[in-house]
Recover the amino acids of this structure.
């Protein structure tokens, strides 16, 4: 069972989105119409999927998602808005999709399906890392990047840094296809990348990961692919 929270300051919009989700037995859907309710619900029982209106009166849904981190860490955010100009600003936060009002039911269900698939992967997949004192299982969702420093590999996560005496190539074999080796010393989680500027990736945390000249073209393609995966069908722009 997945907990879905719809946050929209218009009750009729909440009701419509809830109706569009239909009778999916895997979803437990609740609604809120204010910032206060959103904060209280996330503190009491963090949702798995958040359908977030971007314009909440005078407040920004994007800024609220930023402020609620780490409370919303791992939550699959689907932004909903009537304004297409927000299509780039949403990349300041992690999200699964960007839907324009009036929301098309098939696009909504596709986004929710992708969110559920990602949640399943994140619950069942991770990296087993041997450190000097212990063995850790690190869910892929929480890994930002891996950095090789000679025989030492640093795995930087949302909860801190683990160091292992191994080779980057050995650990790379455990990673899924969301990870990309952008430099001989770096493997980055593409789900955490928000910008690409030819020589580096920028993560949602502000950290910058170098991209080697040899991997620049592939890095650009991987980044564009990630961008497209964040948009519903029909709203993707060609490059």
């Amino acid at each position: 069972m997945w907990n879905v929270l719809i946050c929209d300051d218009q009750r009729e919009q909440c009701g419509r989105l809830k109706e569009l989700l239909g009778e999916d037995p895997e979803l437990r859907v609740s609604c809120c119409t204010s910032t206060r309710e959103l904060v209280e619900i996330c503190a009491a029982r963090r949702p798995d999927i958040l359908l977030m209106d971007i314009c909440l009166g005078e407040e920004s849904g994007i800024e609220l998602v930023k402020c609620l981190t780490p409370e919303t860490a791992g939550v699959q955010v689907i932004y909903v808005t009537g304004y297409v100009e927000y299509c780039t600003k949403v990349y300041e936060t992690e999200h699964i999709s960007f839907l324009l009002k009036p929301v098309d039911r098939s696009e909504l269900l596709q986004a929710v399906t992708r969110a559920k698939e990602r949640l399943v992967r994140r619950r069942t997949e991770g990296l087993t890392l041997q450190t000097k004192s212990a063995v850790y299982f690190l869910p892929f969702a929480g890994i930002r990047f891996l950095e090789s420093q000679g025989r030492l590999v640093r795995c930087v996560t949302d909860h801190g840094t683990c160091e292992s005496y191994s080779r980057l190539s050995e650990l790379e074999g455990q990673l899924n296809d969301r990870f990309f080796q952008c430099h001989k010393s770096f493997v980055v989680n593409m789900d955490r990348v928000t910008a690409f500027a030819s020589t580096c990736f920028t993560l949602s945390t502000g950290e910058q990961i170098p991209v080697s000249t040899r991997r620049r073209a592939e890095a650009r393609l991987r980044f564009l692919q990630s961008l497209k995966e964040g948009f519903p069908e029909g709203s993707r722009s060609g490059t």
User: Anything to note?
Assistant: The two ends are 38 Å apart (CA to CA).
